[in-house]
Amino acid sequence: MSGAEGTAERRPAAGTTPPALDVERIRADFPVLHQEVYGKPLVYLDNAATTQKPRAVIDAVSRFYAHDNSNVHRGVHALSQRATEEYEGVRGKVREFLNAASERELIFVRGTTEAINLVAATFGRARIRAGDEILLTEMEHHSNIVPWQLLAEQVGATIKVVPITDTGELVMESFEQLLTDRTRLVAVAHLSNALGTINPVRRIIQAAHDAGVPVLLDGAQAAPHIRVDVRELDCDFYAFSGHKIYGPTGIGVLYGKEKWLEDMPPYQGGGEMIRQVSFTRSTYGDLPAKFEAGTPNIAGAVGLGAAIDYVRGIGLDAIAAHEHAVLEYALAAADAIPGMRVVGRAREKASILSFVLDGIHPHDIGTILDRQGLAVRAGHHCAMPVMEHYCLPATARASFAVYNTRAEVDALMAGIRKVQEVFGL
Ligand code: C6P
């Protein structure tokens, strides 16, 4: 086990570069990587869709079910107390991971999608009215578009969109112009899943706050790759998914500043989120219970806790440095292949290599690569407005994680040449 010891994050001393990772040791932690697909060694490059799970996460979930399984916050018996301690203990780990001020600011949800829907349905319905504006960007994932459209339709608000440049960066002058006295919320991806762009979120938050506007960051892609400090960022909401950070599916986190969460009406009604219920009136529990109706994904939270330990054991700075080196290597290799074009060349970029090949549909690229054991995603990546910007139906996308190597990039590039050969190009 290379990364799961202890909960303190490994951080390099200020001004030093993190030590190189022992990637072979890390790979040994991930059982699923060691298999063949169609008789070829698996090269898993679909990490933006979901990451693989280290043994520590798999074992934590299985240990929970084998020893401690019970409902939380309800029973007086030993198992229920243990389950409650584990579940709430993970909230403490998430607090450290995001550097939130308090565990009251952390809501367990199904994932980023539910986190954003929660904010739209509660903060949004309470504070956004007819004629108000919600400011998004052209590079958002559908999960950070559609919940706001649903809200806008219900209350009569308007969606405004910050455009992107052809390199895949936000047009910041437009952002500043679109931020008006009608703007009630800015919702923006920290890291784009379709382009890999790392957005200038500090600048965005500063400008929005100067105008008195709160900011939600969609951290689905950033949390696994960049160290996030919600207090340093000063964002109002931050959402991420466990399954993209080596944890289980069906668990994620919404961070919200306490002042907003206190003020927001509940999301769903049910057990756990109440203080007192009668047929005339119900009152609601304290944070974070107010937003966690019903039996939560307890085993998922336990797995998320193990994933956070794992990531912090390696250190996010070391992970980011490793992935950056792999991405730079891949970008240089892509530039050397005639007919291959990378979509998204932002100066600040992480972990994503979206590309097209002249004369070949991305779905054909994905299918032919798959036959060579290379798992990439082909499609619109739930970011149709990005595809529209580039006048593309889809792209092929390789996305890197801590366990990917330069040798795997070489395999990808060899696979791409094979795709071109199949098409006689
Ligand atoms: N992107 C991808 O292949 P969920 O599904 O709730 O865990 O995450 C949604 C989501 C929200 N924002 C961004 C920036 C995302 O990338 C995603 C998920 C996956 O790119 C699946 S479409």
Give me some keywords for this one.
425 residues; 14 helices; binds ligand C6P; globular; Aspartate Aminotransferase, domain 2; Aspartate Aminotransferase, domain 1; seven-stranded mixed beta sheet; four-stranded antiparallel beta sheet; alpha/beta; 38% helix; 16% strand; 2 domains
Secondary-structure map:
Blueprint lengths: L22 H6 L7 E2 L2 E2 L1 E2 L10 H14 L9 H21 L7 E4 L2 H16 L5 E5 L8 H10 L2 E5 L9 H7 L4 E7 L11 H10 L4 E4 L11 H4 L3 E5 L10 E5 L1 H6 L10 E4 L4 E3 L13 H17 L1 H20 L4 E4 L8 E6 L4 H9 L3 E2 L1 E3 L4 H6 L5 E5 L6 H17 L3
Parallel strand pairs: 3-15, 5-6, 5-7, 7-8, 8-9
Antiparallel strand pairs: 1-2, 4-10, 9-10, 11-12, 13-14, 14-17, 16-17
State the CATH topology of the largest domain. Aspartate Aminotransferase, domain 2
Write down the overall geometry.
globular
**N- to C-terminal separation?**
44 Å
- The total of beta strands comes to 17
Radius of gyration: 22 Å
User: Are there runs of 5+ residues with pLDDT below 50, and where?
Assistant: 1-7
The largest beta-sheet arranges its strands as: 4-10-9-8-7-5-6
Bound molecules: ligand C6P
Residues in β-strands, percent: 15-25%
Q: Can you give a write-up of this model?
A:
The protein is an alpha/beta fold and 425 residues long. It has helices at residues 23-28, 55-68, 78-98, 112-127, 146-155, 172-178, 201-210, 230-233, 258-263, 298-314, 316-335, 362-370, 384-389, 406-422, and strands at residues 36-37, 40-41, 43-44, 106-109, 133-137, 158-162, 183-189, 215-218, 237-241, 252-256, 274-277, 282-284, 340-343, 352-357, 374-375, 377-379, 395-399. β11 (274-277) and β12 (282-284) form a beta hairpin. α3 packs across α10 (298-314) and α12 crosses α14. The chain is globular. Residues 1-7 have low confidence and may be disordered. The chain binds ligand C6P.
